[in-house]
User: Fold this.
Amino acid sequence: MKFRCERDALTEALSVAGRAVGSSSGSLGLSGIQATLTGDRLELTGSDLDLTISAQIQVSGQSDGRIVIPAKLAESIVKSLPPGAVSCSAEDDELLISSGRSEFSIRLISANEFPTLAEADDQFIELPADALVDAFRQVVTAASGDDSRPVLTGVYASNEDGGLRLVATDSYRLAMRDIPGAAEVLGSASSALIPSRALSELNRLLKRGDSVRMHMGESEARFEVPGARLSTRLLEGTFPNYRGLIPDHHPNVLTIERTALLEALKRVSLLAKDNTPVRLQMSADGLQLAAIAQDVGSAQEIVEGTYDGTDLTIAFNPQFLREGLEVAPGDHITLNTIDELKPALLRSPVAEDFLYLLMPVRVS
Amino acid sequence: MRLVVAECTVTYEGRLTSRLGRAKRLLMIKADGCVAIHADGGAYKPLNWMNAPNIFIEDQRSWKVSNQKGEVIVIDLHSVESDTTVELGTDPGLQKDGVESHLQELLSEQPDVIEHGLQLIRREYPTEIGPVDLLCRDAAGNTVAVEIKRRGEIDGVEQLTRYLKFLNGQPDLAPVRGVFAAQLIKPQAKVLAGSREIDCVEVDYDVLCGVERPQQKLF
Assistant:
């Protein structure tokens, strides 16, 4: 294999494919990135068996071939080279990387050690990328990062009234987003549990183009954007019955400017370290945020807003509240509450298709 | 549970094709048919695995595990260090603290948690159709029968309905209303209870035990 290309293009492709390379895969082959050169097309692929990402770039190819290169080392080398053209040439079990006066020779990984990816001949459907970017971002934030409960690390996708509904929960909060008219994403399946990590990575790739091609199989989902492909194993298991968690009535409603609350929360949270909750005192006068940290100090701030309900002080984990505010659409949000112990609902008056359910912290 | 420690190579074909090179590993074949291949590291996630139901074919040097999705794992055994089968029996499942009897004991000591002003008349109040978990008197002096479950389902509502019918036939107690208390009450049970004018109360076991659990969970 021999080719020449621009450093920045190669660096980006190595970075994209490298995001699927596991940190401790237990297999030498999976610590590498597979590089396949066909004519002037170079495809770089990383995989940890659950998630596979390929990036394609145009190069000036001289001889075709397939090699597996150590992912982290190759990316570090290429990134450190001076801007301009990079030449790569593989012979026997070594890859020669050169640019200007720099020259590196690195040992290759046996190509047999790398998984062989099945060629996709599936039926894809195409969706506008911008419809998905916000939706994925809004729900992924509520997914769990705890692998001991794999089901909660996924985003539950289901058909809902001819649209696609995405739901994620880590048991402390729940985010839900409906995408009207996108039910065909699931194909013949009524639902799928997609790893949130895969959707986070997909969101990075969606910035590459206006549309995404998707295929949802029985055990795998595939996505294609210009210059990159991503496939992920679907999670198995039963997603919690999320419908029963969403209260159908909240007597207290706080309507407030989203950014104003978010900025005030960030300020007050400076005194809410180590899981200290932030208290929201709501009354007809508006909202007061407060945090008290033992042996450190306290913070409070009044934020203008409209409150309709009985006076209430409710406390939240500041991180969970902040993340909900960050993904909520629109200039204003409503915080709908029942009492200081029952789940609160964060919504946007202009976007009925989004909700963020949040459990309070019990305070004395 | 069959536990085999063997030097082996493993190939997987399905969503993709992968290969685990020759190395010593722990192979687990569980009673339900699940197969897992473990390295000597990591808390729980196998290097590769296949859930049941699957088809397991074993010969002297090789195992083949396949499923209906077309996935196939082939394990080639180069040398077997140990091969043991242990009968584990039925697992009792994760034991949780909030058993009904303890919940009943805790609520009998703190009936106010169920309803403000509630006072205990008797725990395990005997009737001819079985004991009522808690018989109480409310702030207005009326009798209240409380049925306590860890998980509140329709069966529990039916059971309380039978007790209420019986107790309301007792002139010295009637009128008796019902309260269904549980750590978690299913929506169907809430609907049924509501249609029979039975109040539902979800109680927090940790709080009853005096355990501080400030960050509450949705489920």
